[in-house]
Amino acid sequence: MSVELYQETAVPAAGDGAPTVVLSGSLGSDRTMWTPQVPALLGAGYRVVRYDHRGHGLSPVPDGPYDMADLGADAVALLDALGCRQVHWVGLSLGGMVGMWLAQHAPDRVASLALCCTSAALDPQPWSERARLVREHGTRAVSEAVVGRWLTPGCATAHPETVERLRRMVEATPDEGYASCCAAIGGMDIAGGLQAVSVPTLVIAGEQDVATPPEHGRWIAESVPGARMEVLDPAAHLANVERPEEMNRLLLDHLKELR
């Protein structure tokens, strides 16, 4: 059963009739990870929706474990509640996985995909182990390692305030929500359906992303008909935070081609 996700919508000067971009974030994040993208998208005339996954931020925390169908159903319910027939989906990491699920299971709701620092297939064992660790010791037990993968060392050294903000974000994520979304990632089954994805797709990877290395993005781009691949260097897992101007340019160029 879907849950009512917490979301924030920003409307451009053009009003509610503007095309909608949905921003879907990483495991352990909340909607504020997309703060660097909102002004650029608004300025280009898009209605911008960013939300918290179930078990994250201000969204409800149902008992787990969850699967990708749960997260996808939540997204469909969100679009229904907002009156969005079709949206441009921008997803990073877990958000990209949800986007790929939607493009396969609710293709009429997706006008385009931007899949950032994500994967369609990951070894389930580490995700099971991480879920167990978080259930036993909380998100504090993984926050330092997680943020260490989110930014390159150079960025982390230059911006300690960003490191601290992201660490607090991870630690504020409910333990059950984080662990249950680990189960969704470990159990996802979306790789086999990528060739059926028919919407314009941009894949963006970070050259120094050790969580979902560029070869994962290349595999997605080679599997989705007509997909285009871009690599940001330097950039780790949260490339939208580390390289906001470059990420915004890639997203706006991608969206501009569809208008």
Automatic annotation (TrEMBL):
SUPFAM superfamilies the record matches: alpha/beta-Hydrolases
Residue ranges occupied by any AB hydrolase-1 domain in the UniProt entry: 20-244
Record-level Gene Ontology MF annotations: 3-oxoadipate enol-lactonase activity
GO term, biological process aspect, one: beta-ketoadipate pathway
PANTHER family, per database record: AB HYDROLASE-1 DOMAIN-CONTAINING PROTEIN, HYDROLASE, ALPHA/BETA FOLD FAMILY PROTEIN
NCBIfam families: protocat_pcaD
Name of this protein: 3-oxoadipate enol-lactonase
Originating species: Haloechinothrix alba
